[in-house]
Design goal:
mainly beta, rod-shaped
Length: about 300
């Protein structure tokens, strides 16, 4: 409006310096009004109050190298690599300098794929907010180290491994670590039946199962055990046998499976009502596993 009148003055109102990028601390910016009829009216300038809010950068989260679970490793000791932060300044995308950190650096990452919060802190704190985003962390289960394998209670031939109680044994986080890993030992295949020849020689597999199955995997070890011979073979004949007089001699007297008469006794005659001594021998394939194989 022309001074002292109601007449509208047409023209262009614009910022005096359109390329100027105000900061958060800026409180005003200069404008300029250029009339269409500049031969009659003067160009005007003035200041306009402005409010500039802090910008929150657009971020791309950094990456994290795969980890192995360690109860003493916190996120604070895990490196954040790469990542970026940007914002459009003056019509152009610009990188925002700053650094990344874990929101909770004291947290211990558990095994598996997990999402943790990270913080981007810009160097220019005056004009930018901190930004928060997610980082995926892939953590493998730790494999315990068997410090001391368990001891197996002795068994007798015919028993299976599950009949042997496992006692003791200890596992740590690693060979050089003193961090104890609670858990229990069991036979890998409890149905196996060792023979006497296996005693203190053949190694059998045991499995350590950590109490914390989320962060630790199982670990196998090999141990031996004592296998005693059994006292008597199966189907052992009675030491006294009553037979019919039609048998004639010892060899005609039937014995249980895997038993036979000693060669020197087979042809002995069996007089009526007269005791005859003869030796029966166990000849089964597993005869080496018994203490007493004759009767």
């Amino acid at each position: 409006i022309a001074s002292g009148t109601e007449t509208e003055v047409k023209g262009v109102l614009e910022w005096k310096n359109p390329s100027y990028v105000p900061k958060v601390s800026s409180r005003a910016a200069e404008w300029v009004f250029t009339p269409e009829r500049d031969d009659e009216f003067e160009t005007l300038t003035g200041m306009a109050a402005i409010t500039v809010l802090k910008a929150t950068p657009i971020t791309e989260a950094p990456t994290v190298e795969p980890l192995v679970y360690n109860p003493e490793t916190t996120l604070g000791s895990v490196d954040l690599k790469g990542g970026s932060a940007e914002w459009t300044v003056g019509g152009k995308e610009a990188a925002v300098e700053g650094e990344w950190s874990w929101k909770d650096a004291s947290e211990v990452p558990s095994a598996g794929k997990s999402i943790y919060k990270i913080i981007f802190t810009p160097e220019d704190r005056e004009n930018y907010n901190t930004a928060e985003c997610d980082a995926e962390v892939s953590t493998a289960k730790a494999v315990p180290y068997i410090v001391t394998p368990p001891e197996a209670k002795g068994i007798t031939y015919g028993d299976s491994l599950k009949d042997s109680l496992l006692e003791g044994g200890r596992a740590n986080y690693s060979e050089t670590s003193e961090i104890s890993v609670p858990g229990s030992f069991s036979w890998k295949d409890g149905s196996v039946k060792p023979i006497a020849a296996d005693s203190e020689k053949t190694e059998f597999d045991v499995v350590f199962t950590p109490a914390d199955g989320i962060n630790y995997s199982q670990r196998e070890a090999k141990i031996t055990l004592t296998v005693k011979k059994a006292e008597y073979p199966p189907n052992m004949p009675s030491s006294i046998m009553n037979v019919g007089e039609d048998k004639g001699n010892v060899d005609n007297v039937e014995l249980p499976e895997n038993w036979q008469w000693e060669e020197e006794d087979k042809n002995k005659t069996l007089p009526y009502d007269t005791p005859t001594e003869a030796v029966a021998v166990y000849v089964g394939e597993d005869k080496e596993n018994y203490e007493n194989i004759t009767v």
